[in-house]
Amino acid sequence: MNYKKNRADNYASPSSRSHTLRSRKPLSKVKKRQSSISDFDKLVKTASEVPTQAYQADRCFNEMPLSSFTKKNLSAKGYVKPSQIQDDTLESLLAGKDLVGIASTGSGKTAAFLIPVIERLIKSPKSNTALIVVPTRELALQTEQEFKSLACQMNIFCACFIGGTKINKDLRKLQQSNHVIIATPGRLRDLVNQRALSLDTFQMLILDEFDRMLDMGFVHDIRSIVKDMTSRKQTMLFSATLEPNQKAIINEIVRNPEIVKVDDGESTNSRIDEDIIHVPEGADKMKVLIEMISGSEFSKVLLFTETKRWADRVSKKLNQSGVKADAIHGNKSQNYRNAALLKFKNGGIQVLVATDVASRGIDVHDVTHVINYHLPLTYQSYIHRVGRTGRAGRSGKAFTFIN
Question: What is the mean pLDDT of residues 277-290?
Fold first, then answer.
């Protein structure tokens, strides 16, 4: 592909397939891990190239085999018809089958697995029935909020356990009766190792964003959790991507699963315009970024860096230039991360800078742009990052810097 040289005001439109901007002052270099992405054409796409018609279910939630309590809460949330992943998985999950579900971010995966869990608990409200394991704190908190709204006034309770919080509070939570436990892997293992929580009574296991859960960082924890769940009868795996090299570990976890693929797990949302920003050797990448996001259409930008250090650095540089920004990553306290995310949701900042901690679990429907300041390590990571825009039927734009 030939890279053209255009002014930054052209960055807002993906009609120009790629861009280069000259500048003088280089950023200091840091050692980076090597991305496996080599085909940059996969990062360039206009939404009109892949037209899709929004899914319309043939039935409403009121016509589905659900309890009146669940239907009432779904109606209170404004849910009338199921999304495709909800529509295609409900009966299998209500029947207790193991399932692997692949659907893009923002497609309703959380409700797809929570609704069957709640239906099980309505019939048999036993403590420690379902264990939901997610890769990030933000996703855990989002799942907890969704559960509470769907199980409102049913006397069905959940507890959420994440890193970055005081474990003594978690120990007090475990003294109460909880039907559902939502947790990140590290905190869950801490509680199990302290003998504060036993996994042998749980009958249902849900791994959300399982592709991340089964990577090198979490696979040992997941294997240990599965081994401890001696009463497990049903397992659900949900994600936006499916990595072929995880097939063996998936087969260890699920038994004759139903495979429901709403998306192929190998491409981004068709409503998202994607383009690359080619930055030549010696160019001032920060200057390119600042000039780029000065346009009024860049009103709510989620910007990804590959390291925590870079997230802090980019956020600081943006604020110094007059762009309201904040950063979230694993070294930030949970209270700080919550506050930064709230500011982003409420429009208090224009740019939220994040590591991949934000590619899973940040549910902000009106993100106008996703920018990859650094090339993601894998295309699967790219899919999750870009999926933070173009959610819930909206359109979005994504740009990736290429050095």
Answer: 91
Identify the CA nearest to 387 among candidates 217, 239, 208, 215: 239
86 domain residue, yes or no: yes
Q: What pLDDT, in 10s, does the model give residues 111-122?
A: 999 999 999 999
CATH of the domain at 170: 3.40.50.300
Asked whether the beta carbons of 144 and 112 are under 8 A apart, the reply is: no
Q: Is residue 56 part of a domain?
A: no
Evaluate if residue 21 carries a pLDDT over 70.
no
* pLDDT mean over 97-124: 94
10 Å Cβ neighbour count for 379? 19
With tokens 């609704």, the residue in question is 115
Rounded to the nearest 5°, which phi and psi values hold at 45? Answer: -165, 140
Return the exposure string of 56-87: e unless at least 16 CB atoms fall within 10 Å of the residue's CB, then b. Answer: ebeeebeebebeebbbebbeeeebebbbbbbb
pLDDT band at 392 (very low <50, low <70, confident <90, very high): low
**Scanning the structure block, which residue is given the tokens 């016509």?**
63
Do strands 272-278 and 301-304 pair parallel, antiparallel, or not at all (unpaired)? unpaired
- Does this model's pTM top 0.70? yes
> Is 207 within a domain?
yes
The model's confidence at residue 39, banded by pLDDT at 50, 70 and 90, is: confident
For residue 293 the two structure tokens come to 């996001």
Residue 212 domain boundaries: 61-261
Domain boundary among 261, 287, 313: 261
